[in-house]
Amino acid sequence: MRSVRDDQLVRPTVEDEVAAAGSELVGGPAGRRALPGGWRNAVRIVALVMIGMFALGMAQKAPCYDHGWFFGATTQYTHACYSDIPHLFAGRGFDQGLIPYLDRIPRSAGDIDFLEYPVLTGLFMEVAALITPGGGSIQHREQLNWFANAGMLLVCAVVIAVCVARTHRRRPWDGLLVALAPAFALTATINWDLFAVALTAAAMYAWSRGRPVATGVLIGLAAAAKLYPVLLLWPLLLLCWRAGRTRAFLQSLGAAAGAWLVVNLPVMFVFDSSGPHIREGWAKFYTFSQERPVDYGSLWLLISQKTGDPLADVNTYATALMALGALALGALCLCAPRRPRFAQLAFLVVALFVLTNKVYSPQYVLWLVPLAALARPKWRDFLVWQACEVLYFLGIWFYLAYIGDGDKHQGLPLEGYQLALVLHLLGTLYLCAVVVRDILAPERDVVRRDGSDDPSGGLLDGAPDIRVLGPARRRYRPVERVEGRVQWGTGSGGA
Predict the structure, then answer these.
(1) Neighbours of 214 (CB within 10 A)
(2) Residue 218 and residue 202 in contact, taking contact as beta carbons nearer than 8 Å
(3) H-helix or E-strand containing 149?
(4) Nearest alpha-carbon partner for 186 in 315, 47, 364, 408
(5) Pair type for strands 269-272 and 275-278
(6) Alpha carbon 272 to chain centroid distance?
(7) pLDDT at residue 465 tops 90
(8) Model pTM?
(9) What H or E segment, with its residue span, contains residue 476?
(10) Contacts of the segment 96-103: beta carbons below 8 A, 24+ positions apart
């Protein structure tokens, strides 16, 4: 691996005014000799900060630990400490030793017949249930199961922070954006999303090191834990096509498909006298996602509430809007004056999915945090977006408290919740807008200010543009490499 000297590392307290102002709390901006140990020291600090913030997030759930999760009280909403984990321990039959996808859940245990999560997430839940001590009341076992899951999710959180810190060789301190993200700490233990996010962050790191097969394997595994990571294949296709490196994409695509099949095939089919057919338990996640109506957090819910239309065809609307957005990203990639960075397109395609999806659970912000830190490592923009997400995090729980507390109405009325929802949408759109601006005006991209091309681009870093559309053909092109970095200039062609 190419080494990076201490004097080559980008110090955020030097280049970022918000980071410099915030550093006054710990002694002020870093000096010229303030980084002994180089990137290794930075990665260790990022990991420790992540552990500390994760612990604070666990402490924030303390009001629910003793009673809020168990007796139908609104404490889990009024104190914003809700988590799916204790509810689904008994609600999906883990307390009874049921095997996900194989055993049908008794109606007495829950309101669903099979576990509605992808296979690797189901495995994660099963492992946590197996290490949860038996005996005692169901309430006590649910508490212990939450701690077992939290411990495993902490490992995922550290992996995410370390991968982000190491993806851009010269910018390890950008990992602090992830470690200090308030919405990350608040939502980390709501659900099991961190497992898929960790695999996705590892895939980004593998691609930055020029390992397309490892990238594909990790994307395939991540897609077996949550659906959204498969979206990263679209930016990879676009970038590899523009750079003329389609072989690398095909390697990643094949590895992703293979990894996903290896995980899913053992539970996908059931065999009987009539032959193989799809197992109902395995298919539950996909049928549940298809049949799920408009739900909290989505643009479609706001439209439905304002118009009174239940939007029965929301799947068609959401799919069409997502497809149009994906085509727009393709045009952006091929027409941009310089090939966009992988992290930029990865963030935009996942953000597009978040904005067009028919549901937005508060923990979905975890999908975007590491991608945002890599796509736009600017503290001001990142914190503006995070502020909007924290306000939505509070808004959804206070609204649920308002509608679930009888005539007391302790919480936020519908109009207040809709305002929080609009802030979430606007905050995400704002961050998308500045990323698109960086793509169209690459001289404003903070990552590229030092002459870098795409530190997270792996085999594409510094590659010539082979297929370019529109005015981009006469704009920027790589001129030469100086000390391993691409120097850019203007020219008459793409390569």
Answers:
(1) 18
(2) yes
(3) helix 138-167
(4) 364
(5) antiparallel
(6) 39
(7) no
(8) 0.91
(9) strand 476-482
(10) 99/126, 100/125, 100/126, 100/281, 101/267, 101/279, 101/281, 101/282, 101/284, 102/267, 102/279, 102/281, 103/281
Nearest to 395 by CA among 418, 364, 369, 429: 418
Mention every residue, 6+ apart, whose C-beta is less than 8 A from residue 492: 474
pLDDT digits (tens, 9 = 90+) for 33-76: 454 456 578 899 999 999 999 999 999 999 998 877 876 668 89
Write out pLDDT tens, residues 263-292: 999 999 887 667 687 899 999 999 999 999
pLDDT tens for residues 176-234? 999 999 999 999 999 999 999 999 999 999 999 999 999 999 999 999 999 999 999 99
Are the beta carbons of 428 and 385 closer than 8 angstroms?
Answer: yes
In a 13 Å sphere around the CA of 367, the CA atoms on its Cβ side amount to: 28
Domain boundaries, the chain: 6-459, 460-490
Kindly state the tokens that stand for 147: 């701690």
Handedness of CA 149, 154, 159, 165 (dihedral sign): positive
The secondary element (H helix, E strand) that includes residue 323 is helix 314-335
